[in-house]
Amino acid sequence: MEKNFKFYLTLFWSTFSLSAFTIGGGYVIVPLMQKKFVEELKWIDEEEMLNLVAISQSAPGPIAVNTSIMVGYRIAGVPGSFVTILGTVLPPLIIITIVAQFYTAFKENKIVNALLLGMRAGVAAVIIDVIIKMAKDILDTKDKISIMIMIISLIAAVIFDINAALIIILCGAFGAFYYNVYKKGARP
């Protein structure tokens, strides 16, 4: 794929439009990025996208921006990262600037409040869809250790209310040890 003006414009417009029309935060934009860059543009494969999302989740900062950085870098290096960052952060910046100008009018408007309430329900559905797809991908690998990590992480988060960052760090450390030290040592 040639990295010309049209390529960078497509990269920018893809992240800009996804960010502009995604309400609900980073976890909503991730499946849309997957659809755009994996299924439509075919610039990244499914497994690599999941890996980029996993790295993005473990890095500090908003997942939408982190994922954009990772996708942009993977597709076009440092220039791609800058293009996707710009495409991702400009829409919220523009929208928040406009909303801030009219905050008092929006604050008391029943129609706006009803609209936001309905959007929250839609966002919840999209997040549940992401969770189901990611869990299905893990189950499809039939890797017992990965399935065990997923189940233990779910129990730790839901039942014991352990901080998500701690769960991610521990799972990453365990995965690194298991797959790079223990499993390699067990091979003949």
Explain this structure to me?
The chain is an all-alpha fold and about 190 residues long. It has a domain at about 5-105. Helices cover about 85% and strands about 0% of the residues. The chain has eight helices and no strands. Helix 1 (about 5-20) packs antiparallel against helix 2 and helix 2 packs across helix 6. The radius of gyration is 19 Å and the shape is globular. The N and C termini lie far apart (about 40 Å). The mean pLDDT is about 85.
Summarize the topology.
Blueprint: H1 5-20, H2 26-40, H3 46-58, H4 63-101, H5 103-107, H6 110-141, H7 144-158, H8 164-186
Helix pairs in contact: 1-2, 1-4, 2-4, 2-6, 3-4, 7-8
Q: Could you describe the largest sheet, including whether it forms a barrel?
A: none
- Arithmetic mean of pLDDT: 87
Separation of the first and last Cα atoms: 41 Å
Low-confidence stretches: none
Q: Portion of residues in helices?
A: over 70%
- The succession of helices and strands, N to C, reads HHHHHHHH
Based on secondary structure, the structural category is mainly alpha
Rg calculated over all Cα atoms: 19 Å
The general outline is globular
Number of strands: 0
Helix count equals 8
Query: What percent strand?
Result: under 5%
Summarize this entry quickly:
By secondary structure, this protein is mainly alpha-helical. Helices cover 84% and strands 0% of the residues.
Q: What keywords describe this structure?
A:
single chain; 188 residues; mainly alpha; 8 helices; 0% strand
